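Collaborator request, handled under Task 6.
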Amino acid sequence: MGSLSSRSKYRTKQRQLTINMVEPSLIASIAAFFTMIGYLPQAIKTIKTRDTKAISFWMYFFSIVGVIFWLIFGIMIGNKPIIFKNIAVIILGGAVLWIKLGNIMNGKDEAVLKAKFFQPLKKLFGRKKS
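Structure tokens returned to the collaborator:
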């Protein structure tokens, strides 16, 4: 039994050594890169075509709100990969959300914002009839 226990301790130490050899900020940088790149194709397509009919307003809205909180967290802990990734995602996702909102207000897209709460936005984004 004693040898099994010492083998188990050895394996645990090996795992810890392997984990400790990988810098956490490297993992954060890789994760940030791939998360940010995930927004790029949709942002490019939306900016080029201005077509947002197949894009969920609420998905982008809540995603951007979450990313804003991740940015705040990154600033609080001073983690540059988290900070830069979230700034990039706010820019890319924000562009898509802005175009989506403009299309909604101009009647080119789903009427997701029909509630009276959103009516002041219609004045900001709506087209002026001449």
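The cover message to the collaborator said: "Residues 113 and 119 are 8 Å apart (CA to CA). The domain at 24-125 is CATH 1.20.1280.290 (Monooxygenase). Please let us know whether this matches your experimental observations."
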